[in-house]
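Annex B. Sample input.
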Amino acid sequence: MNTGNLLFKYRSYTPIPLALYILYNSHPEIQNMLIGFILIVIGESLRMWAVRYAGGVTRTTKVGAPSLCTSGPYSYTRNPLYIGNMIIYSGFVFVAGSLNILSMLIITWVFFIIQYYLIINLEQNTLIDIFGKEYKNYMNNVPILFPRLSSWKNKDKYVPIKFSKTIKTEKRTLQNIILLMLIIYFIHYLK
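Annex B, continued. Sample output.
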């Protein structure tokens, strides 16, 4: 199993050491917490928007897709879930605080950039094998991470899943957000 496959399979767990590092170095300050909360809400909102279009298949441990989703947030960027994760973790850096927030942000972004670089390469190769020209056309029109300013107009008319189903799919992510917030609270405010 190559590194990309390993990271993809365990991508829900690989950020745990980073989360522990953020918690270990935490030094919360009220003025940074508001920034952090806003980033977490933005990141999770982006994730929910993406999950509404891609559905529960985003929770798989095997690379591939039953169909190519190119509408909704996927018409702006090919990896809105990964962007959402990076924004959420940046929010946690602000909520947890640090004596040097900039260095914690850099560590967080470097971690995700390396991990997602390896995963995205694997996903792209797999999706080219599955969808061929259709995916190559998508790649040529929609950037990997940094979103387009306008949505890519294409034939995908996918209707998003219901919000209630999206919440079920995102349950683990929401639980992890709440858990990290509670840990930060207990560590620093119930001493």
